[in-house]
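DM from R.C. (forwarded with permission)

"hey, sorry to bug you on a friday — could you get me a structure for this? deadline for the figure draft is monday and I only need the backbone to look sensible"
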Amino acid sequence: MPSFDVVSRINYQEFDNALANCLREIGTRYDFKGLNISIERKDKVITTLAPDNIKLKQVNELLQTHLIRRKVDPRVLKVKSSETATGGTVRQISDLKEGIDQESAKKIITQVKSLKLKIQVKIQGEELRADGKKRDDLQEAIAAIREIDIGQPLEFVNFRD
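My reply, with the result:
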């Protein structure tokens, strides 16, 4: 019986490459010369430090640009908080979103069920598994799932015939 998995994963190697390229560009840009700007990743937490909110916004846009260049969807970043730090700087903490949460999974399942296809979609932890009798039905379900915006990138893996 044909099946596929719907997952949301981050390619950490490409993410780290984008982060390194962003830091390299920050070091060479004239408008950032002599400023205390840093971006660090520890596990799934990104900490950005900038002198003010304007520079913080510029650094975030620069990071998003480098993520897009490395083919990493910038929607994997979820900004948690922005606060003032020592020395008059601004610190922003962001999380990396990986895996499909229950609310988004239910939204996807209801969307697929509304198509009235002969497909079973099951939640397996932070992934979804779709089974069906016909390959065409599964491909139609993939097209429908791509149209749904849950705020993070989705991948379709492990397609078996």
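R.C.: lifesaver. DSSP finds four helices and eight strands in the chain.
me: no worries. Residues 12-28 form the longest helix (17 residues).
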